[in-house]
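Request: Could I get any protein with tokenized structure?
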Amino acid sequence: MHSFIPPDRFFPYLTWIEIQAMPDKENVVLLQPVGAIEQHGPHLPLVVDTAIATAVVGKALEQLDPMIPAYALPPLCYGKSNEHWHFPGTITLTAQTLIAVLMEVGESLYRAGFRKLVLVNGHGGQPQIMDIVARDLHQQHDDFMVFPLFVWRVPNIASEFLSPKELELGIHAGDAETSLLLSILPDQVKMEAAVTEYPYGLPENSLLSMEGKLPFAWTTRDLSRSGVLGDPTVATKEKGDRLLASLATGWTHVIHDIYTFQQPKAWK
């Protein structure tokens, strides 16, 4: 059941007695991996985003100082993936449903006495959902510290091996994601089926972009016939191993920072 998570760090393996008696519960760090079940081209399984978020959290918890109390919740596999719903196999929740699920998870944890919740999002189509949930939970409970984080945002070495074009446009099932899957789920990668595809007709010399500060709305079908945005053909397990290690190191640092974090206060 614990998958990539160390069993002694897997929240569902605890009993209610252990949770009730847990010391310094206000500073225990709970990590909720949030992924997706959505198409990732002809070569990768639907579980990519969930697998990456869970594997990175698990690797970080393996190397975390054992004196820091931190636990992973079971991954939430379904996300808001409607940009991919034209491709068979994609399962999507509405924004309203995902918000409701995460709000109720948060409320349950707060009721149990926990005060630090990290939303470890692995899917690029739902950071805004994490932001809304974190703000609303904190607004309802001003001592609840909720962190809406994206698994890729910690310092990592992706820029060392991705081409400039891949860094800008390889946002789905490209080199980085495929390399990571070759590291964590190699038997589920079909490299013989990998194809390279980048979107055509993007605005040139424009402030607008697919993602970034000034984005436009799109669905994957608008930009790709295969469901791939990037070049997975150059992916390797060696790159994936290095990338996983760098992401885990970054997340180990983040978990430590959250453990010591206290909500800033207005100046008096």
The first strand starts at residue 29 and ends at 34. The chain has a mean pLDDT of 97.
